[in-house]
Amino acid sequence: MAAVLLGNKLHPPVLADHLIARPQLLKQLERGRDAKLILISSPAGTGKSTVLAAWLKQQHSPAAWLSLDQGDDTLGQFLLYLLGALQTLSLGLGDGLLELLRQQDAINVEPLLIQLSNDFARLDRKVILILDDYHFLSDPRIHSAVEFLLDHLPSQVCLVIATRTDPPLSLSRLRVRHQLLEIRGIDLRFDLAEVTHFLNGSQRLGLSSTAIAHLETQTEGWIAALQLAALSLTERPDKEAFVETFVGSHRYLVDYLVDEVLSRQPAQLKIFLQRMAILERFDTSLCGAVIGQPTDPELLSRLEAANLFLIPLDDERRWYRFHHLFGEFLRHRLMRDEPDLVPELHRRASAWFEHLGWTDDAIQHAFLAGDDLLAARLANDMAAQLAMHWNSEQFTRYFHRLPVALMLLYPRLCLYYGWFLVTTGQFAAFRVVLPTLGKSRVHALEPQTVDAAFLSLQAFAHLLQLEFVDTVLAFQQALDLLECGEQCSSDVEMQLVRIGINTTLGFICPYIDLRRATVLFADNLDQSRQLGSFIGIAHGTVGLARVNHQLGQLQEAGHILEQGLFHFESSRSDLTKRYGAWNVGDLHVGMGRLQYEWNQLGAAEASVRQARASNELYGAAAVLGDELELSLRLFLVHGELEAATAALHQLDRLSASIRHHDSLAKQLFEGRSMASRLALVAHLSQSPQTPPDASQATALPSRLLAEVGDWLRSRQLDIVGLAQSLGGHHILARWLLARDEPAEAATLLGTLITAAQAEDRGDDLIQFLLLLALAFRRLGRQEEAMEALGRALNLGSAEGYCRSFVDLGPEMHILLTQRAETQPTPYLTALLGAFPESGGSAAASEPYRVDETTSWAHEALNAREIEVLRLLERGQTHKQIARELQLSPNTVRWYMKSLYSKLRVNNRTEALHHARTLKLV
Question: What is the pTM of this model?
Answer without folding.
Answer: 0.60
